[in-house]
Amino acid sequence: MTGAIPTVAEASRLIAAKRLSPVELTRACLDRVHALDHRLHAFIHLTEERALDEARAAERAVMAGAPKGPLHGIPIGLKDIVDTKGIPTTCQSKLLADNVPETDAACAERLAAAGTVLMGKTTTHEFADGGPSFDVPWPPARNPWDTDHFTAGSSSGTSAGVAAGLILGGIGTDTGGSIRGPAALCGIAGIKPTYGLVSRAGVAPAAFSLDHIGPMAWTAEDCALMLQALAGHDPRDPASADRPVPDYSALIGAGIKGCKIGVIHHFHETDYQVSAATRRGIDEAIATCRGLGAEIHEVQLSPLQDWMACGSLISIVERAAAYEEWTRTRLGDFGERVRSRLMLGALVSGVDYLQAVRRRRELRAQLQRAMAGLDAVLTASQPSEAPKIDALPKWDLFQTPSFTMPFNVAGYPAISICSGFGEGGLPVSIQLVGKPFQEPTVFGIADAIEKATDFRSRRPALVSRASAAT
Amino acid sequence: MPSEISDEALDFLLARAGLTLSPEQKADLKSVYAGVAAMAARVRQQRGRMAEPALTYGFTGEDLQ
């Protein structure tokens, strides 16, 4: 296990130039898995033999001059709520401990068709909800920057795995922030694409109208490469958007001179005060954008708590509906955190739900008006650095408003990227939000910020220590 | 929606949902009722009866095939 961990884009270029073997790349990732995953718990199920077989196949194709594209030979992980043919898919739950799907989810199919190397199924919160849970059959993932700390969730294994270089990218899902939260606390990039852009077929539902599937990787550029393989119409998903797929890397490296970026200051200054390091990361990102020639504008929306109330009520009810049968018949088989959240469904009336869905239309219209004339908006992604994993209240839903939920409510694309580090060495982050189906713009701005700062040159210390030991 | 719920009202809601909970679970749920009530209050606006929900849908070409 030697050498720096490449990004997807770097590995792709090296593989295409026949300067990096997909087999060596996969072995290096597997070495890190064996050295670190007993501490990180990023994987529920490792598919080592399949990974090596796929890496060898990728190597043969590359050497024969027939690579499938930029993801051919790239080691990835799939969140364990994504169905995988012949591979256990547990949703981190006792209820599905023995579940082995007969078909692949759409996103698994698409990444396999692009030639990725499947390293395994990554840790999630049970059914992508609640967490961290210590009373389900598998332990929660740990933050590679400090294993006493939380990864956030629910795409916790994918984020920990990417940060530690166990995988170069992976799939997350996001109902209220489950891609962007763990991306933020683990210091990586993760995008919740526009609602309907990536098929949800074959992925366990959390809340139907808020669920999104998206890529997580070390950089925004890597996320763009992965989204290229993932996006596209799928009639198996009733919400799937039927529209052309653009080049998601079109604005990578293009700079942001003249871009108009709005900042929602009141979210992180008035509605909920973020930590000093998070505030500093936001302020420095704004300064970076200005320095690169972007125009900064102020954006005013309804208070964060309004968005949170709307999204939470919808989420509570849609989850309760999706899991109603098991909630009635096997409630005791869920871990405590999910069990408690499912019970909440009894407290929300049908009229409450419909009022939330009416509010959703108003809030979306408000965001649409606020973003008129802008390319993107910038806001906080998480309130602070990662908290201790054993210090998280069960009912955090009612204590800290989510900075990510507004864009599940609106369905707009939003990416979380690293914007620095707090005093304890834990990452902080910002969130960039684009207009529907304008992911290329989001990636372009995120890439410009990443390349103008040096935060992508730093990996968790535990990775360097493990490398030094081999 | 009041910010507190009586034991009788909670029992009714749980029965309607088909849930049988322990006394501890009921107490836990009661402890967060005010949070749910606050959310329900926040989504109510002076919007009148004509305001459409976000899930209003239209028909597509596939409906005519």
Would you write up a description of this structure?
With 470 residues, chain A is α/β, with parallel strands linked by helices. In chain A, 39% of the residues lie in helices and 13% in strands. Chain A is built from 16 helices and 11 strands. Chain A has helices at residues 8-16, 22-40, 48-63, 106-113, 156-163, 180-186, 220-230, 265-271, 276-291, 304-322, 324-329, 336-343, 350-370, 405-410, 439-452, 461-468; strands at 43-46, 75-79, 117-122, 169-174, 189-192, 212-217, 260-263, 295-298, 376-380, 414-421, 427-434. An 11-stranded mixed β-sheet of chain A has the order 1-3-2-4-6-5-10-11-9-7-8, with helices on both faces. Chain B has one domain (1-49). Chain B has helices spanning 7-17, 23-31, 33-42. The longest helix of chain B has 11 residues, at 7-17. The interface between A and B is medium-sized, with 36 and 31 residues.
Specify the CATH class of chain A.
Alpha Beta
In sequence order, what are the helices and strands of chain B, one letter per element? Answer: HHH
Biggest β-sheet description of chain B? none
In total, how many beta strands of chain A?
11
Q: So what's the overall shape of chain A? A: globular
Number of DSSP-assigned strands of chain B: 0
Structural class of chain A: alpha/beta
Tally of alpha and pi helices of chain A: 16
Query: Helix fraction of chain A?
Result: 25-40%
